[in-house]
């Protein structure tokens, strides 16, 4: 365990939202977010959709596992909560952490009613800052479907650069193999 990470921030503020660690008993609101968006999440997060959809208890187990993994420094999952309504509208996850580098993979999604509003740009920028400044990451990367152009534009806007193509790297729920594109963001190119 890295003792210097014992007092990292658990809530990150942006202009319009709070990006924070989940708390106990938030499984139901997370399950509701997944249900409202399952048709657009199914291709990108099939395991998550399946796990959360199983039962309200499975959603709470998922949330508690994210809390435990945060405390164990295995991964860092954030909910995106609107300032005005305190509604859960998104999810950001730093995972697959290699503490030897250190580097982490990033995944995220936002509720369909808030797409193209700039909220995810704000939230991602704040989590990237958290990764570099508080977790001392040297690199953060994301893998996205090659036809997910909205995601590719978003991560470029935040500062990621395309690193390469991963052919036949992902199997969609229907069984078709799909290509992924990898984008990376390194500490040396981070401006703050």
UniProtKB/TrEMBL annotation:
- Residue intervals of the N-acetyltransferase domain: 33-181
Q: Which UniProt keywords apply?
A: Acyltransferase, Transferase
Q: Which Pfam families match?
A: Acetyltransf_3
The secretion signal range is none
**GO terms of molecular function:** acyltransferase activity, transferring groups other than amino-acyl groups
| Membrane-spanning intervals of the chain | none
Q: Give the family, as the similarity comment puts it.
A: Belongs to the acetyltransferase family. RimJ subfamily.
State the protein's name.
Answer: GNAT family N-acetyltransferase
